[in-house]
From TrEMBL:
Region (Disordered): 311-405
Residue stretches spanning the membrane: none
SUPFAM superfamilies (alphabetical): Anthrax protective antigen (SSF56988)
Species of origin: Streptomyces drozdowiczii
Lineage: Bacteria, Bacillati, Actinomycetota, Actinomycetes, Kitasatosporales
Xref: SMART domains: PA14
InterPro entries given in the database record: PA14/GLEYA, PA14_dom
Domain (PA14): residue spans on this chain: 52-196
Compositionally biased spans, kind Low complexity: 350-387, 394-405
Pfam families: PA14 (PF07691)
Protein's name in the database: PA14 domain-containing protein
Length: 405
């Protein structure tokens, strides 16, 4: 029941084997045989840099033995997941098991409450799910419905006391998602955070702390030891914010050599899920040891939001002032359509001819003298350089007006 903390470098070799089990971004599958957990005997943790303390859950993804079986037949892949907040699991199932339907998942580890209290869990999934705390089912909804939230009875948890955690779900067909929130008399309902989870002791992950800076354009990777040989790292990193690829601009070393600062071409937005994949082939070393393949989710501290260039000028206390609003201020107004002419109908003509005789440059109006006046006007659009409509038909404008904006 010990939370994972960084292990000494002497254990990196076993850690490297386990880290290689994590799911790569993309389609590479983790063979089920290789995904067997590392021996518990190899797990000797000791306190280290809190920046690299490992939080999250071991996620395992399976295919069913047959549609509707809802069993854990064939393990397709394993990953360290930060928490249970999966709006779209179909892609994860596809990349690990080779199929997005008739699949199952299990997330396991420990859950630790931040303070004493009675916690109520609320789970929602597509499709069925069941939650176990200390081996006891506190939510059991193994049903083929979806988005049908289920809550547990209040569970008494003590601050800092880890409890065994296991959540299982199945996905029959169509969409797939899974969410887990909690609440207590002192805590508003919210996603159970990554900081409350620790993976099982026999599931080792490479000790590196990954976080996105508040500006959104820098990713910080903090290692236990001095890093070296990072010149080619840029070409071996894949970073995604939600599902958007984030190209890497540069990689530099900082903080006494234990940290790598990865600059991105564009800013990560607040609350995006940032996935980092290092393929293990860039020659990167930490403490002289080769850094293995790493697939993780970074803590996203970005405060960046998508706004217009006028967004920063908005007064928070008076967000929608009367005119002129900043986005409506122009040095010059331009009529993007060119000049317009409006012509009224000649007396005693039908209303339809009045409608058809309204024309706008650059569309040219042409009428056929052999046709009835009320059905003869045709318009043909020409280039924007045409400044005034040319009138060849029998009707004459009784008034003209020029649009000014
Ligand atoms: Ca489904």
């Amino acid at each position: 029941m010990r939370p994972q903390t960084p292990h000494p470098r002497a254990l990196f070799r076993t850690a490297a084997c386990a880290a290689a089990l994590l799911i790569p971004l993309g389609a590479t599958l983790v063979p089920a045989a290789a995904a067997a957990p590392a021996s518990a005997a190899s797990t000797t943790f000791k306190a280290g840099d809190p920046a690299t303390t490992v939080h999250g859950l071991k996620g395992e993804y399976f295919s069913m033995s047959a549609p509707g079986a809802r069993d854990f037949d064939k393990l397709g892949g394993v990953a360290l997941e930060p928490n249970i907040n999966f709006p779209g699991l179909a892609g994860t199932f596809e990349s690990t098991t080779g199929q997005s339907e008739n699949t199952t998942a299990r997330w396991s580890g420990f859950i630790t409450a931040p303070e004493d209290g009675d916690y109520t869990f609320a789970a929602s999934g597509d499709n069925g799910f069941r939650l176990f705390i200390d081996g006891k089912a506190v939510i059991d909804h193994w049903e083929p419905d979806w988005d049908n939230e289920q809550t547990s009875a209040p569970i008494s948890l003590k601050a800092g006391e880890p409890h065994e955690f296991k959540l299982e779900m199945f996905q029959d067909t169509g969409g797939a998602n899974m969410f887990l929130r909690w609440s207590s008399p002192k805590l508003a309902k919210q996603f159970v955070p990554e900081s409350a989870f620790t993976p099982p002791a026999d599931f080792e992950v490479y000790p590196v702390g990954l976080s996105v800076a508040d500006n959104g354009t820098e990713l910080h990777a903090v290692f236990d030891d001095k890093v070296s040989d990072y010149a080619d790292l840029k070409n071996h990193l894949t970073i995604e914010a939600d599902t958007t690829p984030m190209p890497v601009k540069s990689v530099t070393r900082a903080r006494g050599g234990k940290e790598l600062v990865v600059k991105l071409d564009a800013a990560v937005l607040k609350d995006q899920r940032v996935k980092i994949a290092y393929d293990g082939k860039g020659g990167l070393k930490a403490g002289g040891e080769t850094v293995p393949e790493i697939n993780r989710t970074a803590t996203n501290n970005s405060t960046h939001r998508l706004t217009t260039k006028w967004g920063d000028k908005v007064d928070r206390n008076h967000p929608l002032p009367e005119y002129p609003r900043p986005q409506q201020v122009r040095d010059k107004w331009k009529n993007l359509n060119g000049q317009w002419e409006f012509a009224g109908p000649r007396r005693a003509r039908s209303p339809s001819s009045a409608r058809s005789s309204v024309s706008a440059s650059p569309c040219r109006t042409r009428s056929s003298r052999s046709s009835p006046a009320w059905s003869a006007t045709k318009t043909t659009c020409s280039t924007a350089s045409s400044s005034r409509s040319r009138r060849t038909g029998p009707s004459r404008p009784t008034s003209t007006a020029r649009a000014t904006g």
